[in-house]
Amino acid sequence: MGSRVEGHRCNMNIDPKNFDSSQAVLRSATEQDLATILALERTPAFHTMVGTWPEQEHRRAMRDPDVQYRMIVNATGTTVGFAILRGIASPHRNIELKRVVIGSPGTGLGQRALRAIMDHVFQSLSAHRLWLDVFETNARALHVYRKAGFQQEGVLREAIYRDGEFHTLLLLSILDREYLSQPAQ
After folding, report:
1. pTM for the complete prediction?
2. Which residue ranges make up each domain of the chain?
3. SS (H, E, C) the chain
4. Top-level CATH class of 16-130?
C-alpha cells in the first residue's frame, strides 16, 4: 500500500469491459485533486446518495490535521474516486468515513476501495473503530458495507433535509478485532 501513484487522471465513465477492479490503491489527495473531488461529488446520479460541500469547505478540511483526503486509484493508475476520513487525531481511535465516492459504481471497485480504506485505517492509523452513516435508500452502498463486515448500530431518523424532504441515515461501524478476524483479501 505504500506505493504512490503519480498523476491526476480521472475517468468517471469507466467502461466495465476495460476496467480492472483487481486493485484499489489509496494516495494522499492534494489541492490539485479538488477539481476531481468536486466533479465526482456533483455527479448528478449521486445527488441522492452523496453529500456535497462547497470548494472552500473542502479546502478548509484538507488543511485540518484531523481530516485525511485519499484518492482512489485503480490498477492502471487512473483516479476513480476519493474518500474523506475524520477523527484522525482523536484519542478514542474512532475514525469516521465521512465520504467515499467511486466514479463508476457497479464495476467492483467499491469493495476493493473500501478494503483499501479499511487497511489504511486499521493498519496505518491504528484505529479501534471505523464508522459511517449512509442513506437508508442507498442499497448499493449498504450491500458493500455489510459485505465488508460493517454492523448497523443505529438509525438517524429523518436527519438530513434535502430537496424538500427529510431522509433517514443508518449508522454502521466495524471494530479492529472484526476487521482482523476477516480472511485475508
Report:
1. 0.85
2. 16-130
3. CCCCCCCCCECCCCCHHHCCCCCEEEEECCHHHHHHHHHHHCCHHHCCCCCCCCHHHHHHHHHCCCEEEEEEEECCCCEEEEEEEECCCCCCCEEEEEEEEECCCCCCHHHHHHHHHHHHHHHHCCCCEEEEEEECCCHHHHHHHHHCCCEEEEEEEEEEEECCEEEEEEEEEEEHHHHHCCCCC
4. alpha beta
Non-local (6+) Cβ contacts of 7 within 8 A are 77, 79
Sheet bearing 151-162, strands edge to edge: 24-28, 67-74, 79-86, 94-102, 129-135, 165-175, 151-162
Q: Tens-of-pLDDT digits for all 185 residues of the chain?
A: 232 222 333 333 333 333 344 578 999 999 999 999 999 999 888 877 888 899 999 999 999 999 999 999 988 888 999 999 999 999 999 999 999 999 877 778 889 999 999 999 999 999 999 999 999 999 999 999 999 999 999 999 999 999 899 999 999 999 999 999 998 76
